[in-house]
Structure formats: C-alpha cells, structure tokens
C-alpha cells in the first residue's frame, strides 16, 4: 500500500523546573543560593532522506514525543536537556499545520531539516533571583511546556518526467522498457494501483552513463479524475513536480478516438492544477506495432501539427522509437531548470 498523505501528532518535551538550593559545607552555615536551572525540553524535527520513497514507515506509528528536560540541582547543577526526536520523510514532503493549514516546510533535498515542535525552556534556579534585598531567594521557575501540534504530511514524488494517459495506454510497459523498474503489466485497465519510479540510464541506449533521469508511472486517468473519479485524483499530485510530461495515446484501440482521448486527459490535468496545464507536454502515440487503422495515425499527426508539436511514435513491445524518444527527452531536460 502506497502512503502519500497522512497526519502525525508531535509533542515536544517539557522543560525541567529550576531548583531551590543553598550552599552548605563544613565552613559555611548559611551560604548563598545555588539552585541550578532545569534542562530544556527536547524538540521534534522532520528531516528529508533520499533513502525513503513513501510515507509507509508511519503505518504503525503516528505519534512522536520528545524527551522532557530534567530538574536542576544544587551546586548550580543544570538539569539534562530532553532528547530530541528526528523523523525522516521522503524528499518532496510538504508539511502543514493541520489546524491552521499553514505550510511549515517543503523538504526537497537530502538532509533538509525543520523544527516542527520546539521544546519548552527550562526553569531558572533560585540563584538567578539573588539581590541585595533578597539574599536567600526561596523560589525557582517551573519549566515551560513544549509545543504540541498535529501535522499534515503530503508527499509529491520528485521525478523529471511524468506519464499521463488513459489506463492501458502503455505507461507501465514504457517504464519497464526504459528503466529497471518492474511495474505490474496486464491487458486490463488499472493494473497500476500506485505510482512507480524508474531511473533511465542512457547508457542502455548507447549514450553517456552519466546521463540519467527519473520517470514516474502514474495510475491511469479517466474522465472526471480531477473530480474524484477512478484512481487519478489520488495521484495527480505526483506529476505536479515533474519537469515535463509524456502524454501517451493508444492508437491500437479501435474503441478509443485518439483525439478525444487527448482532449479528456488535457481537461483533467487543467482541472486539477493550472501548473499541470502549462507544463511542457509531448504527445506520444503508443503500440505502433499494433496499429491497424492508419486514419487514427493521421488524425493524431494532424492534431500535433495544429499544436506545433512533434508527433512521437513508439512501440514498447518491439522497442521501435524508444531510443529516439529517450535521447530527445534527455536533451530537452538539459535545457530545463531543475
């Protein structure tokens, strides 16, 4: 099960109270105040890690508590600070305060770290309150409570290229042919139930082994996906961060008009996010080896020409067109900002 949206309850530690104590030894009967300060409560941090791809690690734990600070002691002894808690999340995690909706952080790089609940300050010991008119202060401060809040975590996968299209348009097959990823592939709709990431290394096509990019296979969209139909609404967020989209269109299915299929997917992308509507998008006709009606191919080419787009044709089954597409995507990504 792919977790990409959940809530966590976090509580920072309470500060330890200060101490009331006075100096005593064999030669001193009535020494001055020496009560130490309490330790600070531990804080809760969230840190991005490139070792994680989902929020599945929180399946069985949704509550995190930092340690409390210890009480101060005599002889100006400061109490020990409470232990911090560091929660690791995948790159691309957006953190919001669940109550106010305020965005607290968006962790995009390995090691990015944010404090989401600050520990309480330790109380002052009685030595702080000594004065010419009060040489034996007998009070100290209590520790302050730590912050507590409920967090809303939303993961948006970070990939260079996202795939869009109807179910069975060939997205999973394409990912399996250009990367080492092994998504489920079958001849019925909705075989992909969760996003899949694959790393495309261009040396498999005879290119430079240093040229790599990440491709995201998103479950197929249907009409009404942006409004909640099908699986698309759950995963459209994952193509928001991609640098470009490959819109796959099945030309072999006689029951599906390619022009209408393009229109529907475009409408769903625009309805979900204006960002998706303006993202660079290439139209890629799939299943080239199985095309029986050349009129469908001609209609696809006309639509691409109307939009001043290059028509791409591939067959993941035979490999036709994959190398050319991969090199073109690599070149395009080099011209795009990260």
What does this structure look like?
- The chain is α/β, with parallel strands linked by helices and 338 residues long.
- The chain is built from six helices and 14 strands.
- The longest helix has 15 residues, at 258-272.
Layout of helices and strands, plus pairs?
Blueprint: E1 5-11, E2 44-49, E3 63-65, E4 85-90, E5 93-97, E6 103-107, E7 113-117, E8 148-155, E9 161-164, H1 171-178, E10 196-201, E11 212-217, H2 232-235, E12 244-250, H3 258-272, H4 274-278, E13 281-286, H5 294-306, E14 312-313, H6 322-335
Total E-strand runs:
14
Report the order of strands and helices.
Answer: EEEEEEEEEHEEHEHHEHEH
Q: How would a crystallographer describe the biggest sheet?
A: 6 strands, mixed
Report the average pLDDT across residues.
Answer: 86
The secondary structure category is: alpha/beta
Task: Write the CATH architecture name of the largest domain.
Answer: 3-Layer(aba) Sandwich
Q: Helical segment tally?
A: 6
Could you tell me the strand content as a percent range?
A: 15-25%
The CATH topology of the largest domain is given as: Rossmann fold
End-to-end gap: 30 Å
Broad CATH class of the largest domain: Alpha Beta
Helix content: 10-25%
The spatial strand order of the largest sheet comes to 10-11-9-12-13-14
Could you tell me the radius of gyration in angstroms? 29 Å
């Amino acid at each position: 099960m792919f977790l990409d949206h959940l809530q966590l309850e976090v509580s920072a530690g309470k500060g330890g109270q200060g101490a009331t104590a006075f100096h005593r030894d064999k030669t001193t009967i009535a020494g001055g105040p020496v009560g130490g300060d309490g330790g600070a409560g531990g804080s809760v941090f969230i840190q991005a890690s490139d070792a994680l791809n989902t929020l599945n690690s929180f399946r069985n734990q949704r509550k995190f508590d930092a340690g409390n600070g210890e009480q101060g002691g005599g002889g100006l002894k400061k109490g020990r600070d409470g232990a911090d808690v560091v929660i690791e999340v995948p790159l691309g995690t957006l953190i919001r305060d669940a109550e106010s909706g305020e965005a607290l952080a968006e962790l995009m790089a390995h090691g990015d770290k944010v404090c989401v609940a600050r520990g309480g300050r330790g109380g002052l010991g009685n030595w702080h309150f000594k004065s010419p008119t009060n040489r034996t202060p007998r009070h100290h401060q209590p520790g302050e409570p730590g912050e507590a809040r409920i967090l809303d975590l939303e993961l948006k996968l970070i990939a260079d290229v996202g795939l869009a299209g109807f179910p069975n348009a060939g997205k999973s097959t394409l990912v399996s042919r250009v990367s080492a990823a092994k998504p489920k592939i079958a001849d019925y709709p909705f075989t992909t139930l969760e996003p899949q990431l694959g790393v495309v290394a261009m040396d498999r096509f005879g290119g430079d082994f240093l040229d790599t990019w990440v491709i995201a296979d998103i479950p197929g969209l249907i009409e009404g996906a942006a409004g909640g139909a099908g699986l698309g609404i759950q995963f459209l967020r994952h193509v928001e961060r991609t640098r470009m989209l490959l819109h796959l269109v099945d030309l072999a299915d006689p029951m599906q008009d390619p022009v209408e299929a393009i229109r529907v997917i475009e409408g769903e992308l625009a309805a979900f996010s204006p960002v998706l509507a303006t993202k660079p998008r290439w139209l890629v006709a799939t299943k080239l080896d199985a095309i029986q009606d050349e009129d469908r191919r001609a209609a696809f080419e006309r639509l691409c020409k109307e939009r001043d787009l290059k028509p791409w044709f591939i067959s993941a089954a035979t490999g036709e067109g994959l190398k050319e597409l991969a090199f073109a995507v690599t070149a395009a990504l080099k011209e795009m900002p990260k």
